[in-house]
Amino acid sequence: MCRSSPTPAASCCGCHPPCRAEPMSDWLAQGLKGREATSVDTYRSLADNHIIPQLGKGKLRDLEADDLDAWLEAEAEVLATQSLKMVHSVLRRSISHAQRRGRAVRNVADLVEVPEGRSGRPSKSLSLKQAAAVLRAKEGTWIHAYVVLSLLVGVRPEEARPLTWSHVHLSHSGKERPHVDVWRSVRRHGETKTRKSRRSLAMPQQTVVVMRAHKRREQAACVAAGKEWTDERLVFPTETGELRSALNVRRNFRTLLKEAGFANPKEWTPRELRTSFVSVLSDHGIPIEVISRLVGHNGSGTTERVYRKQLRPVISEGAEAMDATCPPPAPDGAGRPR
Description:
- The chain is mainly alpha-helical.
- 46% of the residues lie in helices and 3% in strands.
- Strands 1-2-3 form a three-stranded antiparallel beta sheet, with no helix packed on it.
């Protein structure tokens, strides 16, 4: 089987015209400039696991639509529809890249339709009993603070990771209650997912208590390390002060779930904290239009489509609902069961 070479300009196996793996290698190396590293890694993984092993043999000019139909049908047995579309897109874009450089005459991927794949992994939300256990697990750690902020305020994982203390307001200011400014994300150029994703969200009292304690710990660690504190520091940094990866957060989150008594922590992802936020608000009677604003959607239609399983018939508004559902702990740990 022809495999991609580390030198994109060279033919992967000396074939002329090029073998099928070569356009993929060239596109991954040259056609994704300016893309996020995580996106490139995703495309590379799809190519290495689902395209090159099945289609890498032979010349690109000999690849027929029938070959692709058979390949897509086989992949549909193991991939969800969205993943199947991504795999097809990677193949199509790599051949288009080769066409623009005179290395391919036609793009055979344009001649086929993507079939339906397997049903995607359904999103789910925590029950109130599970949420209560999660909010008690690993108290006094950064991942506990992360979970409290995500579950009770509803920020996206990509918004929580780059959050700085300058955007977390833990004191009342006039009529403004403590709130968090969700103005950035780890997306390209630091922009939030949509214009309406740029929002300021009031924090329920439990979140304020936990975030204040977390900030004190971060400040103490900073002083102990002989560094100057600044509110431009990340709220959830690594031990070296860097941005945490999504993988790092997911691993720590599942460790927390294990402590909380979950039988299968690997079945859950941090994004389902946000799903649970929507579910709790809907159960509490918050209108879908309000939930839509809180989660930063362009409209309630998006909220209904994305969270249709979590939404229920409704009526009335935000942080107060979380205070009523998940009351804050007693001050200084008083009354906490041992």
